[in-house]
Amino acid sequence: MLLLPACSDRSKQANGGSDSNAAEGRQRSVILISIDSLRADFVSVYGHKPKFAPDVPTMPFLQELADGDGVVFEHASAPSPWTLPSHMTLLTAMNPVEHGVRSRKFSLSKDIDLVSDRFKQAGYKTGGFFSAPFLHPAWGFGRGFDVYVPSADYLGTIDAGNALSAAGKSEEVVEIHHQSHTDKETGAQVVDRALTWLESEKNYEAPFFLFLHFWDPHYDYFPPAEYAEMFHPGYDGDIVGDELMQLDRPISPDEMDHLKALYEAEIRYTDDQIRRLFARMEELGVGDDVIVAVVSDHGDEFEEHGNRGHHLTLLEEVMHVPMVISAPGLIEGPRRVEASVSIRDAAPTLMDLAGLPAWTDRSGKSLRPIWETDDIHREVSMDLFRPAKRIELMGYRHGMMKGIQNLKKNSFTVYDLAADPGELHPSVGLITENNPFARAALDFLNKVAQSHHQTGLVKEEAEITNLLDDLGYSASEAPQNQPKPEE
Fold it and tell me: The domain that contains 443 carries what CATH number?
């Protein structure tokens, strides 16, 4: 059905929910935006003030979404500190152990559908535009999308055409020219290709589900020059922007401050590209009537605990991520939610707001009861599995208490985030009658560990492997003690 302009619908839906969509006999379009490597504490919505430009917000457009009919989740956690398992969780509403894609060696079971499948089954046009190699269809992404293509020129060597051809959609694949893995402004490419799809055959007029993945805040930090100047005016030092992951190179505090300014510039550039997307949709008459969620998959470490980058720990600098959901007429905003939640629950929430039936076979649930009835605090699961480095961590959060189980060292560490937000004073979580949090955490994590699904083996092309190595993701051996892969 045609998507009606928002100006005539706001009063009708002021107190509505998903039932109001059905009552009006229409479906609302939905956009899910993931911004790679975006820490919550660098987002102006969460109170961030840049050191060299304290009056310049990093994400003013996200603030506008939040200040309208929006919900800001103050304590949202990523399911994993790296791209692949976090995005699989985002699109399946399953914890990493649950969906099984904890390592790049494994792909999602063919029996597990994505949120895109659900919207497609409901009659939506579905488009996905990704800008990182770990969202390639080889791992199980792309299901349920009419179009699912790389939208960054540096991914041009990845054989997305053949992968989509196997699903019968090769005619939808656009030609993408290869530049290099140092492609500096992928956000514009994502928006350009998404708008091309929306406007082709007037897809914006039908209810659509659009998934957009932005890459620019991921290291290395090469923002456009005007954005770098915006966040560190007059800088004349030697930092280029690729030093964070030169692990043998010491970085002085002043140099780290400039790297953070470049990171802020990348964030603002991405926010401006999202603004451009919505400005065009408003011109098309649909911008104010879209349900939208903006999340991140993980953050980055700037040596807060001696580390750089991510994929190393379950500490807050990589696990605390932004999550904002906006739904004009369906959310009486603005609202800020203090409960502990996970991006695992973003897709079920979007399905709920759009009036789609809920999943019944996975751990992710709609967050709507939290802001409508003060249903506080979800039990949150986190996971990090790196066999090559002998790292296997499982994390648990409930409220402001957090526990990390180290399966290799057989230890359990507790953090009180209210008293110790920097996680500088952990305590050993002994499982005793006097430590109910530790007992609850271990009980929960034991249930998570028993929830795994069968996985497939990834047939990773050499081009993908080379690109991942160039980006700092060296290959690791296959996980141990995993279910037998599907043939």
Answer: 3.30.1120
